[in-house]
Amino acid sequence: MTEPLLEVNGIESGYGVSQVLFGVSFQVSVGHCVSLQGRNGMGKTTSISTIMGWLPCWRGEIRWQGRPIQNLPSHDIAQLGIGLVPEGRQVFPNLTVWENLVATAKPAQGSRAWTVERVFELFPKLAERRKNFGDQLSGGEQQMLAIGRALMTNPRLLILDEATEGLSPILRQEIWHALAALKAEGLSILITDKNLKQLLGLCDHHIILQKGQVVWTGTSDEFRSDPGLRQAYLAA
Ligand SMILES: Nc1ncnc2c1ncn2[C@@H]1O[C@H](COP(=O)(O)OP(=O)(O)OP(=O)(O)O)[C@@H](O)[C@H]1O
Q: pTM for this one?
């Protein structure tokens, strides 16, 4: 049995009086990669926002390494070891690549601790652009920077919301390669993306949301052996 890192148990959440999540449960174990899937508007970003403490958790429980964290202030949750790559990237436009990487960095000990140099090894394109400002980068470079910035907090869990949205096929491929390398070194990952083929290759486990509820969970092999799933829950 692998140890659970993040446990989401029956969470309910929403915006104002509008309920979006109706008892969502899943977990991410140490070293595992989990995808959160579903059509647009089914609650993926809302689930991530609730985990991060940006939205109140109305019911249910969120545990980090066994400890309840639901409704902790978001700045406390960010300190726990969760690195977020938000939808739309949100790099700092007026800071250089190097400044973006160090602005929110959380140093760690050990030879595998993340440094600017390690991020540049993972994404050599960023090294070439180290003196450019955030708003001078292409979408793909911004996404690499957003991932690098999250890694610089030395997280135990990396959460990516729409990991490759709006990127060219070549840049997408670079992001998928980097994520596979991160997984290979044991980083836990929770990811949303539209590219099913890549998600099936990368992730150990998949969660499908529909109207704020989990309607299917399983492994990549289980997904592949059920040809109706895609049409039922994911096709546009
Ligand atoms: N700020 C908001 N205020 C009110 N309702 C919102 C807000 N953001 C999202 N919603 C609603 O919450 C529901 C779930 O949206 P959410 O963004 O979690 O979906 P998603 O699965 O991440 O989809 P997408 O792929 O489009 O990002 C949708 O009905 C959406 O309209």
A: 0.95
